[in-house]
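Handoff note, outgoing to incoming analyst
You'll be picking up this chain. Sequence as last confirmed:
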Amino acid sequence: MKNVFVSYSHRLDQVEADNFRTKFNLDRNVFSDRSLENRDIGHLESTTIRDNYIKPKIRNSSVTIILIGKETGGRWWCDWEIYYSLLKTANNDRNALLGIRLPNKQHWVPSRLENNLHMGKIIDMPRDYRTLSNEIDNVFALRGNSPDLSINLRQRNSYIST
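Most recent structure output, in case you need it:
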């Protein structure tokens, strides 16, 4: 069982993220969830959230799952979480990436994920826990590759006009 950090757009995809965690983590124990708990920390400074909440969670994981919905590609937190997942430092080994398209949603794949598919892959939402477990194991083997961190980090959110 791998330690996993789950990245997603909290604004639009919280319900799907909660359902994903329940179905695959709580019900089936496919992965050990190292993600942020579902609690309101939005009142804190971004640097506090990043340094005290997110960085330690990513450092304690080996695979970052990106739940891809309508706004995921434009969310600066998702971009930063993918970036930090790929960054190898003294305190942080690289994570593999597994993008999962949320069902019944439009999908905006983050550019940083698209540029680093040699570090992972993108799949549709798995139907069963065995499929997800196999996909996590498959991308885990790719985490030793060298990432492409050349694009600039997002400085703000972008939205798709409907």
